[in-house]
Amino acid sequence: MLEGLISLPWWGYIVATLILTHVTIASVTIFLHRHQAHRALDLHPVVSHFFRFWLWLTTGMVTKEWAAIHRKHHAKCETAEDPHSPQVLGIRKVLREGSELYRAEAKNQETLAKYGHGTPDDWIERNLYTRHSGKGIVVMLLTNVLLFGPIGITIWAIQMAWIPITAAGIINGIGHYWGYRNYECADASTNIVPWGILIGGEELHNNHHTFGSSAKLSSKWWEFDIGWMYIRLLETFGLAHVKKIPPELTYDKAKDHIDLETVRAVIANRFLLMSQFAREVLKQVHREELRNADRADKNQLTLLKRARRLMVREPRLLDAAARSNLQKALEQHQRLETVYTMKQKLADIWQRSATTQDHLIHALQDWCREAEATGIERLRVFSAKLRGARLVSTQP
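Structure (tokenized):
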């Protein structure tokens, strides 16, 4: 039987395959995604070029094309111009034809011109990685066969399928269709699982869409982003520099007035703030209403239970039936209608970010006064908390 330069037990070939594919995943998430598309970190030239070379070998993807398509996805998310939205194209199409959608958009010169700025344009990029993008995967095939023998063909086939399945299919598909949401951002992005290991941290897709320019994708203490772990290791050895991570919000209990510092904290942390409002106000008042509901009225009880999730959800993501059910529940429960209305008014404030700072200060002051005047204790407590909001610097 023919053997390659490296002879391994059967399980050794499995481990080797997992290592090789994981290096590719790390290259995509660290280099293509966080470094190139979002400029969330700087990489040492040696590290940056290693990732470029490895991706040429294992994917044939062109940096400019990948970055441009991903930036367009963020700019046009969940619209007809989104290159791969399952909300528009359907989950089956994105899962099955994710790589085809990528290749089709890569041919769109308007996309590359508008969104592909700032990507590598040196001699080796123009004359090898871009011009001969498909030859790298042939080199990878020959290398695998040389190292592992005939089984190297199988390892190569898995390498070639890894990114189309995990990134083009799972992240672009399931990551906008199924999972949990820490933040109610305007698109349908979800966190698939809280432990971003197999796909380098990209599993935490809702966190990423909320803080798109962050080098760190984990948000809650129980979430794990292995790509962030690698970045921190590179930073330790001077091979990377993190430029931005999600902002942090703190509250000064002694501060009881709205000022410019409050406005800056609210605008920078609007998604985190809304998440806290949902947890500390909406869900708590809903629980109180549910406790006092008439248990004999099953229809009303069912409607009320459904309202808990619908009140938290971004309104633009609710279909007609969901909006109707929510409206019926709010009409029957005045306190719920009040806190939901206050949620909408709070969200409206940061959409005035183009107005003057004085107007924003007055808007927040008015919101706090109105919240406290409702007589709802949860709103009063949250208003007092909001007055003490302070922005914590997150520059590494």
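The chain has two domains: 10-242, 250-392. The chain has 18 helices and six strands.
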